[in-house]
Amino acid sequence: MQMTMRWFGDQYDTVKLWQIRQVPGVTGVISTLYGSVPGEVWQLRDILALKSEIEAAGLSLSGIESLNVHDSIKAGLSDRDVYIDNYIESLKNIGEAGLHMVCYNFMPVFDWTRSELARVRPDGSTVFAYNQEAVDALVPEEMFDRVNSGADGILMPGWEPERMAHVKELFEIYRDVDEEKLFDNLKYFLERIMPVCNEYDIKMAIHPDDPAWSVFGLPRIITNKANILRMTGMVDDVHNGVTFCAGSYGTNPENDLPDMIRSLKGRIHFAHVRNLKFNSPGDFEESAHLSSDGSFDMYEIMLALYDIGFDGPIRPDHGRMIWGEKAMPGYGLYDRALGVAYLNGLWEAIQKTHG
Ligand code: DNO
Description:
about 350 residues; eight-stranded parallel beta barrel; alpha/beta; TIM Barrel; 14 helices; four-stranded antiparallel beta sheet; 12 strands; single chain; binds D-mannose
């Protein structure tokens, strides 16, 4: 595996590349053209500029998270081919820049969803949290306002104001899209992009839906073992792969994370590893990465990745906000660096005892 951290670019991130470079064991970052909107063609010069900036700091650009998919593609609208052509063009440029992993998601309208961005834990740290009743009490626009206001003016990934200004229209285009239709639209998209992925050896890594169930009545399909195996099987190409995000699949306690990892051998191209703490069936919060602080057995997750010979980029995921840091919620330096140290410790121990 290659240990990485997510970085949003100098203009948007409070964390600096030189700081990431000092986190032991981190050799790369996962980044994106953060100001771009879904549907736009990524220009080669912009990708190369991002790559050189990262390399000048002594790190590698280990993959893209995310190249977002336009809602016309997800909803299967008549103009989807225009946006797929643009997506293919962006992939070509990503390939030309020598990059080989692209994370994306296929969630209608919203990316990840939380009811709180800063729930205070007993130790005074603040974390993302989800409470089903609180979400049920909101209309979609309020969810956007909540995310936006909780972020202190920082642009949150997946919550682009350009799109969110049209939440009502966005919901409208999904009126006739159920899970089956969403699967069909994903298949159509994947079949069209696979040739360029093969040409440039770009491994596509779909991110699961977070949380792993329908929110606001919108269909969600990347939620469990059966569905993800259906997805990898329906376009059976190694370039059609998965981001294994422990925190997203793990929102549903019925998902057996190590078993899912083992069933996806050869198709996991990127891993997000973090922990959650369940308080009651409809309420969870994001804990520290340490097993004993949350509900997951992090050793078993890392062991499963080791067992399948996972050799792609991995990153700690959302960190708690600690030590007074002011940063994008979930993406401060300190707790993610602690996460890196812990995951590296588990990995070293596993290598030594299973090598
Ligand atoms: C949340 C992230 C997601 C992820 C996208 C991938 O913090 O894990 O926003 O990047 O779903 O497209």
